[in-house]
Structures are given as structure tokens and as C-alpha cells.
């Protein structure tokens, strides 16, 4: 479904994406995992052909550079930041986008039903929960029934209930045969949805792996944030990754996702490299949903 070869994007002297190549078959789900600034969003924009870059990308065999409009017709895109008018009703909002996509009312209704929003057409956007707004964005992305769904941090601004709603909807779409490409920093989303994980750092693919290899356990995953003393976070992240840990930097310490019974493992790894941990925060536990392979 996606063929990327040598995708490279520079902003001045900074390479935001560096020589990324991969193929993604139809019906699969690929997660882009990495720190803030690792290049996930830039890579997505290059793959969609909305940002000029070096290298080549094809969607469904269609070259995104020479036939961008045709390639993007195969894609439903859900951005990280949503923008809806608060006063508009849900039904009016999706009908507006349905008109832009030139689809009929039956297709609009089917799209709402596919994400569990049928019957909510009279609700105003301001009255929707975060999860419902995200599902509305997904319904809009599905209006033309595209084979590929691309999502940029689909649950980053949601609470636990909203995240669960969206992830369950995406899982249903995957089971129905849709191809998913999504950027995420949440292990629960990756564990539940991804067949493959591309670990990005500084614009390059550092590791092509699976969720089972990143977290080889059936136990819940704990996300911990490490604050360091007199050490480079980038160097510490590299040490942890070389030891097999899933790490991302968010500007407020190192976030490491580990099995709940191995929370001390990254601290021990850093200590062996003489990197001192100043403080630890326990973030949310991530339960692997029932039925996840």
C-alpha cells in the first residue's frame, strides 16, 4: 500500500527526515514511534506529498509527487490538532465535508456508523467528548471509503476513556481490512494496533521491529519518566535504546515504557553507564487489551 524509498527532508542544515525507506502491505498497521522532534509528522507529510522532499513515495502504486491528488484520494488523514466550529452540529459538520468529497447522504451515514456516532447528529461540537471529536475526525477521513488511514498522534489530547474509544474504533477498522499508518508515543496503541513498529530518532529509522519485541511480556506496561542529573538526555536515551528499551524524549525528561515488574531495569542500565537518575515519575499503567495478540 505504501512504498517509500530514501525519503529525506531538510530544513536548512537540519535533516528532519533522513533516508527513510520501507514498504507497507495493504491491510497492515504500521506505527511510527519516537521522541518529540524525531521526524514522525514530517515523514507523514512527505508520504502524503504535501511537503516537498528527496526520495520517492507511492500510495497504492501511485506516485505522490507526480500524481499527488490521485494518491491522496486513497488516503483518509486525521491530524493531531482538530479544528471544528464549536456551535455547529455534528451532522452539519460531516455533511459539509461530505459535500467537499462529493459523497451522498448514504455514505455520510455509513461513515458515522462505522465509528459509532450514528444517532448523535444533533449534538453540537462543543458538547462532544474528546473521544467523540476524534471519532468525528475519523468519520470525515472515512467519507470516501479510502483503503489507507493515516493518523498523527490520534489520542494525544484525550483522557483514558477517550483513548479507549478511539483505539477500539481503529481496531475495528483494521479488522475490516483498512491499512493504518499512525504516529504514536503510547505503548497501548502500538501494542493493540501495530503489526510493525518503525522507531524514529533524529529523522532516521533506528529500529524496524514489532510491539512484541519492544515489550516482550504479557504483563501491563508502565510508563516512567526519568529526570537526570548532569547528563545529556540524548546520550542517556541512546544508552537505553541500545539496551532494548523503548524510549522517547518529550522535553520533560526521558519517558521509558517497561513491563510493570521491571521498572528498575532502565535505572540499572543508566547506572552501569554512570548516568545518575535524579527523580522518577510513574505515569499511567498500560493494560494490554484482552484479545490482543
Overall description:
By secondary structure, this protein is an alpha/beta fold. The protein folds into 2 domains: 208 residues, 3-Layer(aba) Sandwich (Rossmann fold), CATH 3.40.50; 68 residues, 2-Layer Sandwich (Alpha-Beta Plaits). The protein has 10 helices and 14 strands. Strands 6-7-8-3-9-10 form a 6-stranded mixed β-sheet, sandwiched between helices. Strands 2-1-4-5 form a 4-stranded antiparallel β-sheet. Strand 1 and strand 2 form a beta hairpin. The radius of gyration is 20 Å and the shape is globular. The C terminus is likely disordered.
What gross morphology would you assign?
Answer: globular
In total, how many beta strands? Answer: 14
Indicate how many domains the architecture comprises.
Answer: 2
Give the proportion of residues in helices: 25-40%
Could you give me the name of the CATH homologous superfamily of the largest domain?
P-loop containing nucleotide triphosphate hydrolases
Q: Low-confidence spans: pLDDT under 50, at least 5 residues?
A: 285-293
**How would you spell out the order of helices and strands?**
EEEHEEHEHHHEHEHEEHEHEEHE
Radius of gyration: 20 Å
CATH class of the largest domain reads Alpha Beta
Q: Gap between N and C termini, in Å? A: 23 Å
Amino acid at each position: 500500500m505504501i512504498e517509500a524509498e530514501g525519503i529525506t527532508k531538510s530544513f536548512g542544515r537540519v535533516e528532519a527526515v533522513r533516508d527513510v525507506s520501507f514498504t507497507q502491505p495493504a491491510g497492515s498497521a504500521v506505527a511510527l514511534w519516537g521522541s518529540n522532534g524525531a521526524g514522525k509528522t514530517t515523514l507523514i507529510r512527505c508520504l502524503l506529498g504535501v511537503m516537498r522532499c528527496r526520495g520517492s513515495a507511492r500510495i497504492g502504486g501511485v506516485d505522490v509527487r507526480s500524481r499527488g491528488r490521485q494518491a491522496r484520494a486513497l488516503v483518509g488523514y486525521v491530524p493531531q490538532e482538530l479544528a471544528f466550529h464549536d456551535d455547529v452540529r455534528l451532522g452539519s459538520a460531516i455533511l459539509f465535508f461530505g459535500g467537499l468529497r462529493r459523497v451522498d447522504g448514504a455514505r455520510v451515514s455509513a461513515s458515522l456508523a462505522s465509528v459509532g456516532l450514528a444517532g448523535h447528529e444533533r449534538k453540537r461540537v462543543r458538547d462532544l467528548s474528546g473521544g467523540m471529536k476524534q471519532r468525528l475526525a475519523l468519520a470525515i477521513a472515512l467519507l470516501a471509503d479510502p483503503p489507507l488511514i493515516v493518523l498523527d498522534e490520534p489520542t494525544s489530547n484525550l483522557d483514558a476513556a477517550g483513548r479507549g474509544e478511539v483505539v477500539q474504533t481503529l481496531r475495528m477498522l483494521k479488522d475490516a481490512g483498512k491499512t493504518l499508518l499512525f504516529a504514536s508515543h503510547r505503548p497501548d496503541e502500538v501494542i493493540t494496533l501495530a503489526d510493525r513498529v518503525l522507531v524514529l530518532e533524529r529523522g532516521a529509522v533506528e529500529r524496524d521491529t514489532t510491539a512484541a519485541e519492544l515489550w516482550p511480556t504479557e504483563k501491563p506496561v508502565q510508563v516512567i519518566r526519568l529526570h537526570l542529573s548532569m547528563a545529556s538526555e540524548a546520550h542517556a536515551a541512546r544508552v537505553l535504546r541500545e539496551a532494548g528499551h523503548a524510549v522517547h524524549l518529550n522535553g520533560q525528561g526521558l519517558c521509558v515504557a517497561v513491563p510493570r515488574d521491571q521498572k528498575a531495569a532502565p535505572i540499572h542500565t543508566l547506572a552501569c553507564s554512570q548516568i545518575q537518575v535524579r527523580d522518577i515519575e510513574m505515569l499511567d499503567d498500560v493494560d494490554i487489551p484482552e484479545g490482543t495478540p
